[in-house]
Amino acid sequence: MITVSSEYRQLPTAEDLPDSDETPVDNELQNDIPNMLLNLLRSIWGDRQDWFWGVDMGIYYEPNIEEPEKSKVIVPDGFLALGVPRRIDENGRLSYVLWQEKVLPILVLEVISKKYNGEYDRKLQLYQDLGMLYYAIYNTSSGRRGIYKKYESLEVYKLIDGKYELMPSVTLLSEAGKVVWMPEIGLGLGCERSISADWDREWLYWYDRDCVRYPTAEERAEQESMARQQAEAIADQQSLIAQQERLAKQLAEAIVTQERQQKEKLANYLRSIGIDPDQI
Questions:
Q1: CA distance 196 to 222
Q2: CA distance linking residue 95 with residue 241, whole number of Å
């Protein structure tokens, strides 16, 4: 694990450090997938303020006092830190500076680049040396030709005795997805095929301990709309039943009234011809 020496007296702050390496992502999934996970966390942990999910943000792990811009940094596609303020001020974080935050991210995520960028070796070794508990790699080219074909679409490594070990996954019954449960986080990370923003493909999601996927905002809105429609349909059905019951009651009352009137008419007729209807 890389640590900051106690000999440093005036370490650079986030304001002193570059907040971008000016390296563009080479595919939109490197933005879409981490942002989807962030939006899900905002729903799952909406009442918590002790977590931070960074998207394409630099993690500074070794300072350079003389030339702050040369401080060592790694920029994962996404990372999760627990036990830190969700917001530090109204402008948010410029970067994640370990000697300021004093908390290592518990999970880092890399979405494989079109051009190989060391996700399975150089970056894996660095995250291992830094002591990140979980390292997840999402590989959109799994099973295809090239250097990625031997890897699974989602691999999650856990730091055990200072070394990363590939975690076993649970296969989902639907859509051939899979989930890796991370007890220290209280969430599972998994993938399955679904539609998001009209894009039908495999996506990464958070899951609960029973491997039930947390829905996206779009899915929650659809579920709420369906629930409203069902509630309205039930209300309409109940209203129709109530109306039918009222009509049935009115019909029954009309029949009783008609029968009474007919009896009274017959009784009056009998009396008019000298017959007592009560004696019949």
A1: 12
A2: 62
pTM of this structure: 0.76
Q: Judge if 64 and 43 occupy the same domain.
A: yes
pLDDT tens for 46-90 read 999 999 999 999 999 999 988 888 999 999 999 999 999 999 988
Residue 208 — φ and ψ, nearest 5°?
-90, 180
Together in a domain, 51 and 96: yes
Instruction: Extract the tokens encoding 100.
Output: 């300021």
181 shares its domain with 73: yes
